[in-house]
Specification:
Number of strands: 8
Largest sheet: 6 strands, parallel
Mean pLDDT: 89
CATH topology of the largest domain: Rossmann fold
CATH class of the largest domain: Alpha Beta
Helix content: 40-55%
Order of helices and strands: EHHHHHEHEEEHEHEHEHH
Distance between the termini: 22 Å
Number of helices: 11
CATH architecture of the largest domain: 3-Layer(aba) Sandwich
Structural class: alpha/beta
Shape: globular
Low-confidence stretches: 250-282
Bound molecules: magnesium ion
Strand content: 5-15%
Length: 282
């Protein structure tokens, strides 16, 4: 299948869904003021655990949290892209600084959980007789990740997680496409190899960081702005590889225009980005 040569690694907040799930739950359940007041005093991940305890203290249930999560906005083209990539044989993973309960609830709601072979995120558990959600850091405080890039939060270095995924991809002869929007997505973007792809969300923090020094990124850079562009760009990368790697079996005439469109992608000289030798593998 066309996508059999790819591992696709998705950030979750503002990538799969169109909002930050932590902010969405906090705002939906009336904790915005408390959250804003406490944010300067503790790490984000610990603050979210505190917010969950506060919800329980106020009599809100796990069902209330789940209902808020199911209402989180999602661009319909993103689930379409996920399903199409899965159907093409890609290996899809989530790598997120949200938490397991939030992500599983939303993916289940949209019927997407089965498309992902793993979800790497902050662990969650339920206590107080099934009534209270607790959120823990991915890297425990007594085992800091020690990453020196400077853009990773203390509770999670996505780059370290991606290193393991890159080793798995290399052993399987697969290339990696990484999609994300935030500062925490910069470290993994730097660890991608030549032949991999990074899809930063245009105008978001990871895009700004990449633009500051494009030479630090070895992977091909393909920005996107919304679900439609994410879908189009991601599927073009996967299908283009099929043309290059399987010329005898790919329906070349029908897909060739996709290559032409890729040539004109605004990876953009005016944004200070290198113009990639598109259509040519390293
Ligand atoms: Mg994000």
């Amino acid at each position: 299948m066309a996508g059999g040569g790819f591992v696709l690694v998705f950030d979750f907040d503002k990538t799969i869904i169109d909002v930050d799930s932590d902010n969405w739950v906090v705002d939906s359940l009336g904790l915005t003021d408390l959250f804003d007041r406490l944010l300067p005093t503790m790490p984000w991940n610990a603050l979210m655990d505190t917010m969950m305890c506060e919800l329980h203290a106020r009599g809100r249930t796990l069902a209330d949290v789940a209902a808020a999560l199911r209402a989180a906005p999602i661009d319909a083209r993103v689930p379409a892209a996920v399903r199409a990539a899965h159907a093409l044989g890609c290996d899809l993973r989530v790598l997120s600084d949200a938490n397991a309960f939030f992500i599983d609830t939303i993916l289940d709601h949209h019927g997407l959980r089965g498309c992902f072979s793993e979800v790497n995120t902050n662990p969650s558990r339920v206590d107080a007789g099934g009534a209270r959600l607790r959120i823990a850091p991915y890297h425990p405080a007594d085992a800091p990740h020690g990453c020196g890039v400077g853009t990773c939060p203390p509770n999670m270095c996505k780059g370290l997680v991606l290193d393991r995924i890159l080793r798995e991809a290399e052993a399987a002869g697969k290339r990696v496409v990484y999609l994300g929007d935030g500062r925490g997505d910069y470290c993994p973007a730097l660890r991608l190899r030549k032949g991999d792809f990074v899809m930063p969300r245009r105008g978001f923090p990871v895009w700004d960081l990449i633009c500051e020094d494009p030479a630090r990124v070895q992977a091909e850079v393909h920005p996107w702005s919304d679900g439609a562009e994410l879908e189009e760009t991601l599927l073009r990368i996967v299908r283009r590889a099929a043309i290059v790697e399987e010329p005898a079996t790919a329906p070349a005439p029908a897909l060739l225009p996709l290559d032409c469109k890729l040539e004109s992608l605004p990876v953009a000289a005016q944004d200070g980005m290198p113009v990639m030798p598109l259509g040519v593998k390293n």
